[in-house]
Design goal:
The chain is of the alpha/beta class. Helices cover 36% and strands 14% of the residues. It has a six-stranded parallel beta sheet. A three-stranded parallel beta sheet has the order 1-2-4.
């Protein structure tokens, strides 16, 4: 009797054709993502080979670090799309932003229109060190302005490790959750993997994103998925069709 090991499932095996990526850093030279246009081209074509069909890229807006503005991002978006056309990269591509919830964020969304993923859905993130002191007040005010917050990579905020109630409180406060694809491969470490499993098993993840910054991220999407069951992850992957361009 011969025993065969079951083939390991790679993350790229689960990517649906035409996958809409709602979180990445593909605009060149604007944050800690793609360095230049050639770097951006390589990342996009690699992801397209995996089945990615549309991109809503999300450069950081982070006061004091990446002082990007909506106007600057739109300008870079136009330049990048023209470059893609000249180089026969034909894929739906547009830019939104990933906003850090800090002490300047509230004044920003009260004074100008935010760059949204689609309609009124806006991608936000927190510091990896600790949650903002006024987190729930800011989330409330953001929704009063008509936005629907999608919290980027909730699994990476390890200060919430083993604290399901904290995540439930965020969901109750109106936050949708976007998981990073690499989190289910253990790329960011065991704690992040454990939180990913918990949130997926609880059905708390709404959307997904590559959060690709560089070639190492793109290549790591071929890593093995460290989940026993994939059904909830596959559902989340397909949910991204909500943002089809």
């Amino acid at each position: 009797m011969f025993l065969f090991n079951k083939p390991k499932t790679r993350l790229t095996d689960l990517i649906p054709d035409g996958y809409v990526d709602i979180h990445s850093h593909l605009l060149p030279g604007i944050d800690d993502g793609a360095k230049d246009e050639e770097d951006s081209d390589r990342l996009i074509t690699t992801l397209m080979d995996y089945g990615f069909g549309q991109f809503i890229t999300t450069p950081h807006i982070l006061t004091g670090v990446w002082n990007n503005t909506a106007e600057g991002i739109r300008t870079k978006e136009k330049i990048t799309i023209n470059h893609q056309k000249e180089n026969n990269i034909n894929v739906p591509f547009r830019a939104a932003a990933e906003y850090l919830i800090d002490d300047t964020f509230a004044s920003l969304f009260k004074s100008e229109q935010l760059l949204t993923l689609k309609d009124n859905y806006v991608l936000v993130e927190m510091s990896y060190l600790n949650p903002p002191m006024q987190l729930f007040e800011v989330l409330f005010e953001l929704q009063l302005e008509g936005y629907k917050p999608i919290l980027a990579h909730p699994e990476r905020y390890v200060f919430y490790y083993n604290n399901l109630e904290a995540y439930k409180k965020l969901k109750k406060a109106g936050c949708l959750f976007q998981i990073n694809l690499l989190s289910v491969t253990g790329y960011y470490g065991k704690q992040v993997l454990d939180i990913s499993k918990m949130l997926l098993e609880e059905g708390m993840i709404d959307y997904s994103g590559s959060d690709v910054h560089h070639t190492r991220h793109a290549e790591s999407l071929k890593n093995t998925v460290l989940l026993k069951k994939y059904s909830n992850l596959e559902k989340v992957l397909n949910n991204n069709s909500r943002f089809k361009l």
